[in-house]
Amino acid sequence: MNDFKIILDSPSQTPALGFDQTAAALREIIEGSKPQFVIGIFGTWGSGKTTLMRSIERQLDPQKTIAIQFSAWRYEKEAHLIIPLLDVVREGLVKWAKKNKAFKTNAVATASTIGNVIYSLMAGLNVKVGLPHALEVSYDANKALAKAKDLDDESNAASVPRSFYHAAFRALDDSFNEFLKQGPADRIVVFVDDLDRCLPQGAREVLEAMKLFFDMEGYIFVVGLDQSVVERSIDLKYRNDGAATNETGYQIRGADYIKKIFQVPFSIAPVAIAQLDEFLRAVYGESQLSQDQRIEFQSVVAPHLRYMVAESGVNPREIKRYLNAYTLGLKIKPHLDRKIVLALQTIAFRRDWEVVRRAVLSYRGIFTDALRRQLTGNDTNAITDLDPSLTGIPDSFFSYVSPHSPGENLLNASNLDEYIYSGEATRSSLGPMLLDAIRDVAQLNKLLRAITPDQDVKANEVQAYISAVRTALASTQSLGDQRLREIAQNWTDHLNTAGSPRMSLGDEEDVNKTWLTEEESLIRREINQLMQVYQIGSLATPS
Question: Is residue 415 part of a domain?
Answer without folding.
Answer: no
